[in-house]
Amino acid sequence: MSEDLPVTRWESADNTGFAAHFTHLIESGADVEGEARLADAMLPRGATVLDAGAGFGRVGAALQKRGHRVVAAEKDADLLAMGAERYPDLPMVRSDILALTPELLESAGHPTAYDLVVVVGNVMVLLAPDTERRVLGTLAALLADGGRILVGFHPQDGPADSARDYPVEEFRADAESVGLTLQHRFGSYELAPPSDAYCVAVLSR
Ligand SMILES: C[S@@+](CC[C@H](N)C(=O)[O-])C[C@H]1O[C@@H](n2cnc3c(N)ncnc32)[C@H](O)[C@@H]1O
Asked: Is 39's C-beta closer than 6 angstroms to any atom of ligand 1?
């Protein structure tokens, strides 16, 4: 992975609690598949899915279980190692989202165009500062015809200390600047009405 890539908000803070928190949730039988259920409802059977900023692959693995061809891309080596242990059959790529190109994916034997890109779990508010447009543009370039991007984040007061505030109108402007349209906006993965507390968005080209 290129060392020239900017440091993400995730990398610049101590986020070791994330893995422990989700391990506890999963082991206590809590529902951690809300994002995947909505993503699955958006897709035909056997679709191609890119889980961008996948963490340890929680969402990607839940989509793979539902029959989709999933690739999980993540930058954090510890989370990748956790994913490899927990979901050994989930294809994972170590990469910054900014470095995800069709060439890189092809060289690793993965699809180069996706029916759905999922960027959930606050990835958008944990990117490197001022890279939101580049990240959205990079992901837009990986969409298949008719492909969409499912995004989920806390616009303010995110759970990670390092998360930025990201008003939804700023997010919309960033998406539009790279040729994406905010097709749908909800307040939860159960499609609650839009709210300031959480943003679930569907973007299309
Ligand atoms: C709160 S975790 C969420 C992980 C996963 N999406 C989930 O919902 O379980 C945020 C993730 O975003 C990733 N991330 C942030 N910026 C990134 C970037 N530029 N490239 C790749 N991953 C990134 C972090 O490494 C971290 O794994």
From this structure: no
